[in-house]
């Protein structure tokens, strides 16, 4: 985005914030503190939409503005940074960093690919399978797309596909689909899942443990994998889907050599951590504690070094997530949620009145928002914050909204709408896919997503959540 556009947007955002906080009389039912929080939220959203300054800096300034302008005190504004969610994110990102550093993830990916036929259909299925299996190990989308798309590029070259051809686009999108889209299937697959979970009141968060999340999303996972596979085959399969030698894949595995000590340790530690996350309600060990113990073991065994802990973890992402998660608690503290419920009731009530309507209408609303709000976390935050006032009056568990938001923010009609796509394209020098391929596959996903969510509703009803 051009520099002057960011500057103009920044000035407009600040002016809007000042007008809301200090020039407009407090509406009935909302205090000055509530107006300050509303003003900061408006300004922050303008900054996030136009990327005026780094997103995490905007988030920190938003929190600081609440303290400086007297909306809440420091402990209230920054309370989220002492909560368990932030430590789960830190621990999860560190585990993912170890899996990438040791080469474990690449080894798993290539090994899975060696099991499938070396043709378009076989390797699309391999990328889907590898991405889905690897997703819960790395809670960050950018490293996964940066790693998976070059693998897809190597496969495309080995299969003899021309750059930007249908088949090349199909393999690129298969890597994205498996390693990025399927993140919604597992709580630990991306930090944004924890961020959205952290936005809702604590009393609703308990149901969103690792095991429940997986069960609640299982119909969606199956539908999205099966339909996604056939969608990419329909759109991009070459006429001559010939099978070639797997020499490329075998060479990659051969070059990696035998499994190293650090790979083995990382694999065992991550596997044990996932088991404890699944059994969290039984073993009574908080997920954050499990993550931190796992990271401590890796550092103690020198799989990760203190330097890795400083440089391989996206601390800016952690700060950004923490700042947006703080919104829910502060909005309730200053009475902003109650006021918004009254104002937005005529618009929101029809959407949330019935869970079947919600899983159709809410994704469509999110799709429309994504054309304006680029950041996945920002979009999800805006939606959940807008719906927060209605949690107490809903006919189904508000935790389900987190699942709907998680699956629906990840669309890519245009590459700018999904930052990890940009990372993936950059990793292969934009040599694999086309704008048309992105649009067609994204539109297909948008339909599949709603179908998958509809099929989840009976499971949610059996679990007593809807």
Short description:
The chain has 466 residues and is mainly alpha-helical. It has helices at 3-23, 32-49, 55-68, 74-77, 84-101, 104-113, 120-134, 141-158, 166-179, 191-199, 202-205, 210-236, 247-256, 261-278, 280-283, 287-300, 306-311, 315-333, 336-352, 355-370, 376-387, 399-408, 419-427, 435-462. It is globular, with a radius of gyration of 22 Å.
Question: What are the SSEs and their pairings?
Answer:
Elements: H1 3-23, H2 32-49, H3 55-68, H4 74-77, H5 84-101, H6 104-113, H7 120-134, H8 141-158, H9 166-179, H10 191-199, H11 202-205, H12 210-236, H13 247-256, H14 261-278, H15 280-283, H16 287-300, H17 306-311, H18 315-333, H19 336-352, H20 355-370, H21 376-387, H22 399-408, H23 419-427, H24 435-462
Helix pairs in contact: 1-2, 2-3, 3-18, 5-10, 5-16, 6-7, 6-13, 7-9, 7-12, 8-9, 8-23, 9-12, 10-18, 10-21, 10-22, 12-24, 14-16, 18-21, 20-22, 20-24, 22-24
InterPro entries: SLC13A/DASS
Family: Belongs to the SLC13A/DASS transporter (TC 2.A.47) family. NADC subfamily.
Pfam families: Na_sulph_symp
